[in-house]
């Protein structure tokens, strides 16, 4: 990998893309009105003064606005991507020209990915030496787990970490359970204003967007198989149905399988779906959900994509090993030739398709998620003395505040409980 230019400490692909990055960031800001309100408050109150934030987040136009919000609060920021294929190079170039330190480009090797995270750790160390408090923002838990594995001295200075996605929260809860977690972490994913909107509406729409950009395939009339019926899988199944697909769902959880059935979807085993599906999307957070055994049963020309956090849901490693040949058909789409005439198409190398092949979620939904991130960092700093080394959830009051900011942004007023209603709802005496 060659970098055409370097700016300050940053390492990005091409600084000449900064102008296009600025336009994309401006578009995002225009659609992130709730976060703009948080930024205004941060400008007034400077709650993040003397704080250095190390981030491992998708480097997108929306993340750029989160960084500006943190900076408005007084923080200094260094960021690496949280996926080798998700960085928007023009946004990285734009950020490298600001006060942020950026390490990331689209198409990093796995070694480069980890080196970039190490560079963020290097900035955190320097910040500690310079007397800053430090915090982390993760999407997938790679940064915090790296610090726990290799840079434990930093943990004494780490006031709070935040986590964006379900898979990261699952890893953190496993760390907490085994006694390995040595700093307080806030599970931003668990905000209602995050997973009920970002995972559900965001992943639903942007996953389809990624598949269409990679393949330009017709969704209407296709047999569309979704593995996993969490908020992401549910949103995706409903989006695909909305576009006219015939949707089947696979699950391992009986409750969610039943929900999918009652929502009107076929619920089948993957071994059965493999025989008839046209498009498959995994969105489970689990490993080897689609294996070679399944792929061998699939029709020639089947399209495979993953929208779960890591590229382990489709067994791509063995798929590449067993392939007769791999052809890059167009950006984000490979034809994998198997034995005989059999082939399948793989989107985004099995990495999350909405970011590898499209731009991630629409800005408006990221505004909600990133209000959660900004307010979680503020909450962590304000409550540093009280927070134990556990996975915490933000108080409901903050979640409601985020929803209120967004309702105001789109000009919607809602009713307020009357005193009589409040009393009624808090009482148990009155029945029929
Ligand atoms: N693409 C994106 O932008 C994006 C956005 C948010 C979350 N995510 C990621 O998507 C994944 C799913 O997120 P979620 O919030 O819906 O998670 P979730 O844990 O609530 O739901 C996952 C579902 O998958 C099911 N599942 C697990 N193993 C399975 C298997 N082998 N076969 C079929 N189903 C299985 C689980 O029972 C569960 O119902 C996570 O990895 C999360 O980090 C991606």
From TrEMBL:
Residues annotated to bind substrate: 60, 139, 164, 194, 198
Record key words, sorted: Cytoplasm, Hydrolase, NAD, One-carbon metabolism
SUPFAM superfamilies found in the cross-reference section: Formate/glycerate dehydrogenase catalytic domain-like (SSF52283), NAD(P)-binding Rossmann-fold domains (SSF51735)
Enzyme class per UniProt: hydrolase
Annotated Gene3D superfamilies: Adenosylhomocysteinase-like, NAD(P)-binding Rossmann-like Domain
MF GO annotations: adenosylhomocysteinase activity
Functional note: May play a key role in the regulation of the intracellular concentration of adenosylhomocysteine.
Protein's recorded name: Adenosylhomocysteinase
Organism: Candidatus Berkelbacteria bacterium CG10_big_fil_rev_8_21_14_0_10_41_12
Protein encoded by which gene: ahcY
